[in-house]
Amino acid sequence: MNEGLLFVLSAPSGCGKTTLLRQVMERLSGLSFSVSHTTRQPRTGEVNGRDYHFVSLEEFKAVRDCQPSGFLEWAEVHGNCYGTSRQEVDSRLAAGMDVILDIDVQGAEQVRRNAQPVTIFIAPPSLTELERRLRGRGTESEESLRRRLANAAKEMESAPAYTYLIINDRLEQAALELSSIIIAERCRKRRTA
Ligand code: ADP
Ligand code: 5GP
């Protein structure tokens, strides 16, 4: 059986990555979302084990410091720790599933060093629109919101390192583009030969 493909998605917070991913996962089968570990507090509506594995800093460090590390990659983002379970990703890829990681630009850089992921950067149409979406979501304190917006401009500088770029302006068009990338990658000759 062929190993699955590894997709890495990064975007500034509030850009619409989660919304976009939900749409695409409803349309395409055989895609598995890797649920990250995080030390951040759950938002209203977030479910442990579905959106994230919500853990304490001690629990996070215990996974991180195993030998070899229990994380394929990890990073501190907006003041909290986030990491991708190595075991979760490896077992799904080995079973032939395509796996999607929703990780920040630091994590993407680590994955690039150790694997050959398909990397996709999702950008907002503008920073003004990004702020409007982040405020509209209503999940962040003013301090968290400011921090996320300040990081956004920096994260955008990493966009050229990604294979694909999607501007999430109209959701329907962006979802079509993301689905098309995944389908095209699945059809590459070396994968079907
Ligand atoms: P992220 O996962 O990147 O932090 P979300 O998916 O939570 O972002 O989206 C942030 C907010 O923006 C949500 O309220 C969502 O409904 C809205 N949103 C997402 N995509 C679009 C879009 N293309 N146009 C307008 N609003 C959007
Ligand atoms: P949020 O707190 O808004 O859910 O996520 C904040 C940022 O952390 C986003 O850029 C998201 O992609 C990133 N992130 C989520 N999970 C992981 C992970 O496992 N590793 C890394 N490096 N970043 C992650």
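^ adenosine-5'-diphosphate complex. Residues 63 and 70 are 5 Å apart (CA to CA). The helical segments are 17-27, 57-64, 86-94, 105-114, 127-137, 142-156, 171-187, 189-192.
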